[in-house]
Amino acid sequence: MVYLDRKGQMIILMGVILAVSIITLAVISAHLANIRIVVPKQRESSILDDFRDLRETFGVSLNYNLVNLTMNESINASLKNLGWNLSAWYTKYIGSIENLQEAFNETLEEFFTFELRRGNFFDARLLEYYPADEYGTTYLVKVHLYLSDGRTTITENVTYAILCHSYLVYLSEYLE
Amino acid sequence: MVSSETELSDLKTKGDDSLRFLNGLKVHGVEEGYPDDALSYYLAKNNPKPLKENLSLFLPDTIEYNVYISNGKEEIFWFSSGSGKLEPMGPTARSYRYVSVDIDLIKSDGNWGHEIIPGYQGSTYQVVLELWYI
Questions:
Q1: Domain residues for B83?
Q2: Alpha carbon separation from B132 to A76, B20, B49 (Å, rounded)
Q3: pLDDT tens per residue across span B22-48
Q4: pLDDT tens digit string along B102-113?
Q5: Which residues, in sequence order, are CB contacts of A100 under 8 Å at separation 6+?
Q6: Do the Cβ atoms of A113 and B72 come within 8 Å?
Q7: Which of B101, B104, B123 has the CB atom closest to A65's CB atom?
C-alpha cells in the first residue's frame, strides 16, 4: 500500500514538474518572440560597392590635390618677381609631377579617414608613374589600393591618367 | 524582428541605388572646370533642388531623408525631403557616395562662397543619405 502511494506520488510529482516545465518554456518562447533583433546593416553593405566608389574617386582627388599643391607654389613664385617686372609672362603649372608623392600622401590620408569612420581599413601605395604623351601633359599613375572591413579584403592595382602640365600666363592676371 | 531587418536592408538598398544613380547622371552644358555628374556638380554649385527632385522620383513618399556632406571627420546637414533637418524615426539606414570637387570652385562666388566644412581645404567629400520609413 505504501509502495503504491509512493509510486502514485512520484507520478503526480513528475506530472507537476512536466507541467511547470511546459509552462516555463511557453513563457520564455513568448518573451523571445517579442524581442526585436535589429542587425546593423551599415557595415553589411557590400564592400565591393564601397571599393568601386572609392576607386573611381581616388584618381580625381589625387589630381585635384596635385593641382592645388602646385598652384600655390607658382603663384608665390610669380609674386616674388613683382618687383622687377609687373607685366610679364610667367609659367603657371597645373600639377607638377615632382609633387606627386606629396599629393598622393594627402589623398591617402583623406580616404583613410573616410573609411576609418565607417569601420574599414584603407591603404594605398604609389607604384610607378610615367608620361602618357610626348608633351608631358598627362601622366599615367599606377597605384595599389587596399580596402578591408575585417572580414573581406579587396586589393587592386589601378592606373589613373593625371593631368599635369604647364602653361604661360600673364602676370597681371594676379593683380585683379 | 523580421520587419526591422527587412526595413533596414530595403532602405540601404534604396539609398545606395539613389546615390549611385545621381553620381552617374550626366549634366549637360556644365561650365569649364566643373564635374559633369549630377551629384558632384550640384554639390559644387550648392544647389540641392535638382537632386531633391531626382530623389523624389527614386524614393517613395513613405521614406523621409536627410542629406549630409562629410569630410570624414565631421558632417554638415545639406538638405532633406522636407524643409530643414528632419528627425529620423525608427530604423535608419545610411548610404554614402564619394564626391571630388575642386575647393576653388566651392569657394567661388555664387556657389558656397566659403569652405563647405570650416577649415577643410580638401577636395574629397562624402555625400551621406540618411533614410527612414515614416
A1: 5-133
A2: 50, 18, 20
A3: 999 999 998 877 889 999 999 999 999
A4: 887 888 766 788
A5: A66, A126, A129, A139, A141, A162, A164
A6: yes
A7: B123
- The number of domains in chain B is 1
Q: Are the CB atoms for A115 and A147 separated by under 8 Å?
A: yes
pTM of the predicted protein model: 0.74
Give B65's contacts (C-beta < 8 A, 6+ positions apart).
Answer: B15, B55, B59, B80, B81, B86, B129, B130, B131, B132
Q: Could you tell me if B17 lies within 8 Å of chain A, comparing CB atoms?
A: no
B5 interfaces chain A, CB cutoff of 8 Å: yes
pLDDT at A76: 44
Chain B residues in contact with A40 by the CB 8 A cut-off are 8
Please identify which residue in the block is written with the cell numbers 540601404: B12
pLDDT single digits (tens) A157-173 = 999 998 876 555 554 54
Nearest-Cα residue of chain B relative to residue A36: B1
Contacts of B103 in chain A (CB under 8 A): 64, 68
With an 8 Å Cβ cutoff, are A68 and B98 in contact?
no
Residue A130 phi, psi (nearest 5): -160, 155
- Given B96, B101, B124, which is nearest A111 (Cβ)? B124
ipTM: 0.90
The minimal CB distance from B94 to the residues A42, A56, A106 is found for: A42
Under DSSP, the state recorded for A145 is E
Beta strands in chain A (DSSP E): 89-94, 121-131, 138-148, 153-163, 165-170
